[in-house]
Amino acid sequence: MTRSSRAVASPRVVCIEDFRPIARRRLPKSVFDYLDGGAEGEVTLRENCRIFSDVTFRPRHAVSFPACDLHTRVLGFDLSLPILLAPVGYSRLMHPGGEVAAARAAGRAGIGYILSTISGHKLEDVKAGSSGPVFYQLYLMGGRGAAEAVIERARVAGFSALVVTIDTPVSGIRERDYRNGMKELISGGPLEKIPFLPQVLSRPGWLLGFLQDGGLPGLPNVVVPGKGPMPLVDVAAALAESAVTWADLRWIRELWRGPIVMKGVLTGDDARRSIDEGAVAISVSNHGGRQLDGVPASLRALPEVVEAVKGRIEILMDGGIRRGTDIAKAICMGARAVLCGRAYAYGLAAGGEAGVDRAIEILRTDMERTLRLLGCPSIAGLDRSYVNVPKSWESR
Ligand code: GLV
């Protein structure tokens, strides 16, 4: 066992939540809060996790089976677990291994990885790191020229799908980022940075890794034609430039002939529109409670979307997943698989690649135990008969 895998082994890390205090101790406050925080009063952020307790299980007892089948298929890819690692911006600030480390861990585990536009490693290196399917999450940062260039690079590198995030006409206000000086630290001048430096200096281990990694990473996947890679900007500036509309989807589809997943669907209307515009899957998502505060938890939005889609395309879900039981509930309610963001990013921050391995392992053993306790031998067998859903969820 290496030093980093010991740091995230049991009994120190028994469940996903255990990564959080380790990540908090390792990261400067600004980076930890970027990962941990949400928009405005963080109501949706909290609700994403809380809502799982409104759905309870209906297990079938006194049954036994020799093996549990945890496999599922997403966009035709066989996944060993119904999980994809969600796009997480600024992963390279959480750990120098960043997106490459996360993609490697995903590939090793036989699950998918989705690379954020706001990434610090080149998409070619991320793809090369993973033996599993890798999707590219698209924001229109840097304008249409930069998007056209990255779509072509993703195609050549062998990315399997484009994930288009549709809930970012502007950035939600993440108040913690303002208080911590995320903008000043990332793109301010030396004088602007000074008030926010103590939190960085108080994390010498992180700082050493950051400096050895070359300091602020830049955005190697946002290359503006004639100008080169965009320098790193704070998230508010990044998302202010990132809006995608249904009209953009037309030219995106012309360039990207592969599968398109729409991420950020919360209503039956947007689900139907996604189908009409040619998406092969959607992710029911509120962007981890980071955009419009006050929208429903993802799990709560799922029934309306399932009803609208009527089995025509695949439904994914992200938001609030911390345990295998959460994943099982989402699948019982109609999701084919889930995207996990913070659940692995806390692990990345706490222990680099070993932390991501450990997070996936926790979710895998959770899933197997949950299926056995439910009396259901396979992910494919999970359905509404295994859960009690509040009556009020049936009608809007
Ligand atoms: C980036 O997409 C973020 O939500 O911070």
Task: Give your account of this protein's structure.
This protein has 396 residues and is an alpha/beta fold. The chain has a single domain (3-386), classed as TIM Barrel. The chain has helices at 3-7, 19-26, 29-36, 43-50, 91-94, 98-109, 123-129, 143-157, 175-180, 182-187, 190-193, 197-201, 204-212, 235-240, 246-255, 268-276, 298-309, 324-332, 342-374; strands at residues 56-57, 72-74, 77-79, 83-85, 112-115, 134-138, 161-165, 219-224, 228-230, 260-265, 281-284, 314-318, 337-340, 387-388. An eight-stranded parallel beta barrel has the order 4-5-6-7-10-11-12-13, surrounded by seven helices. A two-stranded antiparallel sheet has the order 1-14. Strands 2-3 form a two-stranded antiparallel sheet. α2 (19-26) packs antiparallel against α19 (342-374), α6 (98-109) runs parallel beside α7 (123-129) and α18 (324-332) packs across α19. The longest helix is centred in the C-terminal third of the chain and has 33 residues, at 342-374. The N and C termini lie far apart (51 Å). The model has no long low-confidence stretch (mean pLDDT 96). Glyoxylic acid is lined by residues 89, 118, 235, 287, 290.
